[in-house]
Design brief:
Layout (H helix, E strand, L loop, with lengths): L2 H13 L3 E6 L4 H4 L4 E3 L1 H10 L4 E5 L2 H10 L5 E3 L8 H4 L3 H12 L5 E6 L4 H9 L3 E3 L4 H10 L3 E5 L2 H10 L7 E4 L10 H4 L4 E4 L11 H10 L4 E4 L5 H4 L4 E2 L2 H10 L5 E5 L2 H10 L5 E4 L13 H10 L13 H13 L1
Parallel strand pairs: 1-2, 1-3, 3-4, 5-6, 5-7, 7-9, 8-9, 10-11, 10-12, 12-13
Helix pairs in contact: 1-15, 3-4, 7-16
Bound molecules: iron/sulfur cluster.
Iron/sulfur cluster binds next to α5.
Length: 340
């Protein structure tokens, strides 16, 4: 056992239940072996909200730790082993641009509701809460979309273009009723006429890890393993999602693998750490292949070295504090999702 491993476990024992370590599925096994809870964004948000721990150590990326801070009390503190671990997709929706887009949409006379993917900053969640909208994760996006549609509202979804388009399609909304808001163009590159038939408008952000997968990768996988079933994450472009056997969030991919008959082959298109771990866990029962290697470098910024460092010293720079002015609206946005 390494020195770091021993130190981490000794410190954890001293803290007992005053400390909760949360680990996202995309973390490395070295980090996850120290986590009290391993989960996707939704499960970890629920655990943070339900916890009484004095300190929550979030092994994931920045927006996840922000959500934990929003959902916990002022007496609790949220830390990250590496606060520089951000999410490029979350950075693609800037609150000033989003407010401008919202003003433009509301000038067109239709009733809109924003839905934000949890992979967004606290500022964007606060905007959404103020505007009556809800957060969603890749596990519950279609359910949250349905909640908005039941209110007879048009959906303004951000920041992930692909999760937005794939979720609308899952609900049977034809592509001609979805449109893209290109945040690099004035008014998203849209005219009032173009918006008339739109039921779901999606911000043009994306996850660099999941847009790596291509039609050619699927064709190559089918040629190499003709008997395999292929599943991808819904942050993957629609052309790929519509040619594979299944798509689902991290939690849904895990369930798909667990339910697969012994002896089968499954090809998975998502972040590579998760695929490697599933292959290891199901070795001998299933053959699990990567659609293509695609690591998230930001998730990889957390490691055993910075985990042990924070547990020893708790430096203030590692404490994630969402400005108190944003918290009530951002909390509303997250709580609407958790209540659905
Ligand atoms: S995998 Fe994609 S969405 Fe998740 S943290 Fe990395 S860049 Fe962001």
């Amino acid at each position: 056992m390494s020195d770091n491993n021993l130190d981490i476990e000794n410190i954890r024992r001293e803290w007992r239940d005053r400390l909760l370590i949360l680990g996202h599925h995309y973390q490395s096994p070295d980090v996850l072996r120290h986590a009290d809870v391993i989960g996707d964004s939704l499960e970890l948000a629920r655990k943070a909200a339900a916890s009484n721990a004095e300190r929550i150590l979030f092994c994931g990326v920045h927006f996840m730790a922000e959500s934990a801070d929003i959902l916990t009390t002022p007496a609790q503190s949220v830390y990250m082993p590496e606060p520089g671990a951000g999410c490029p997709m979350a950075s693609m929706a800037d609150d000033t641009q989003v407010e401008k887009a919202w003003t433009f949409l509301n000038q067109q006379g239709d009733a809109w509701l924003p839905i934000v993917y949890v992979n967004s900053t606290a500022r964007i969640k606060a905007f959404c809460g103020r505007a009556g909208g809800s957060a969603c994760t890749s596990s519950n996006a279609p359910k949250v979309f349905q909640w908005a549609l039941d209110q007879k509202k048009k959906i303004f979804f951000l920041p992930d273009i692909h999760l937005g388009i794939n979720s609308a399609h899952d609900l049977g909304i034809p592509d001609e009723h979805t449109a893209i808001y290109d945040y690099q163009k004035p008014n998203g590159g849209l005219t009032p006429e173009a918006l008339k038939n739109v039921r779901v408008l999606v911000w043009g952000g994306y996850c660099p890890i999941h847009v790596n997968f291509t039609v050619a990768d699927v064709q190559a996988a089918r040629a190499s393993w003709p008997e395999a079933r292929i599943i991808v994450h819904p942050e993957t472009p629609k052309e790929i999602v519509r040619m594979v056997d299944a798509h689902g969030s991290t939690a849904q991919i895990i369930k798909y693998v667990q339910a697969a008959p012994a002896g089968s082959t499954i090809v998975i298109g998502t972040e590579s750490q998760l695929v490697k771990r599933l292959a290891e866990e199901h070795k001998g029962r299933l053959t699990i292949k990567m659609l293509k290697g695609s690591f998230c470098p930001n998730m990889a910024k957390t490691n055993e070295q910075n985990l042990v460092r924070i547990l020893r010293d708790w430096p203030d720079r590692n404490c994630i504090r969402v400005p108190s002015l944003l918290i009530p609206d951002a909390r509303l946005c997250l709580e609407r999702m958790l209540a659905l």
